[in-house]
User: What shape does this take?
Amino acid sequence: MAGVVIGLAGAAAPPGTTTAAGSAASAEREPTAEVRRALDDATRATRTTPFLQNARVEWCRQIETVSPTGNPPEWVAQLADRDTGYNGEHIFENVVFLGYPGTSAYAIKTTEGIVLVDALWNDSDARNVIVPGLTAAGLDPKDITHIVLTHEHEDHYGGATYLKKTYGAKIVAGAAGEAGLPAALKPLDRAVSGPTTLSFGSTRMRLLPTPGHTPGTVSITVTVRDFDGRRHVAGIWGGTAQPAALEGRRQMAASLAAFRTAAGKQHVDSVLSTHPFLVMGTRNIDALRERGTRPSPFVIGEQEVRRNFAVMTSCVRAGVLQKQAGGVHEGKWAG
Assistant: This one.
């Protein structure tokens, strides 16, 4: 069986430039030699492929961008993109993209109903994006049985309250993040506190707590089928932006190493993300439309996935080293 990872994060100056407001801070933010080596390691891991070049830009952007708020302005702009032109698009035979270029959810079709991964921002998104997206894909929202939340930030859990109330969907999320969820989603129907396997007919979903981005972040691998019938394993790296505190960044690095190991054992060979710009998501959907669906461009091969993890690991290591050196990027982005 082959595999997949689902993968994040006024106008400020682009990376490498300064504004009047940012010039004073830029000297403090200049990377140390250790940070620069970690960033160079991320660059070397790209091997010049477009997917990995994009990963290098996005995953290290938080370390290299000078911003008074600590939030890369490019991320802010991308998350504000509310284009619904990709909503309801099949990206695998049993996976439907729901949402926007900046933030998305996924519907996993199983023989026992629909499992959603994340639920977008709010009730309006649930009613006006997720429900019509499912309908456009030939699915019935009444078949939603579970919503698996990657973490306790509103852009991921916001629509879950409406879907739970309307369709009786069960909520699955990290136990350590339950306190950060709204009362309407508690108590959780399944609180994930350790490696957990959920089975929905022939579809198997494995959940792994990967704290760091938030205390309750969960990363996921799940069985998917390409349009030619070949089976893969999809995974979701549950959180994007690095936290402000050094200990949180160290925790994120350890979680990434654990998920990297799990993904390797499960032969992950493709990448998705609930922040699609991290993985060229909409460009892949454009390619699907142009080539007539076969095979899915989200399948990139196990070696490319390993290199993607190498890029992510180097960027997170750069973030840890930056905080150890007293860097002032605070990483306030929710992601």
Notes: The chain has ten helices and 13 strands. The first strand starts at residue 5 and ends at 6. Confidence is low (pLDDT under 50) at residues 6-28, 329-333. The CA atoms of residues 203 and 223 lie 5 Å apart.
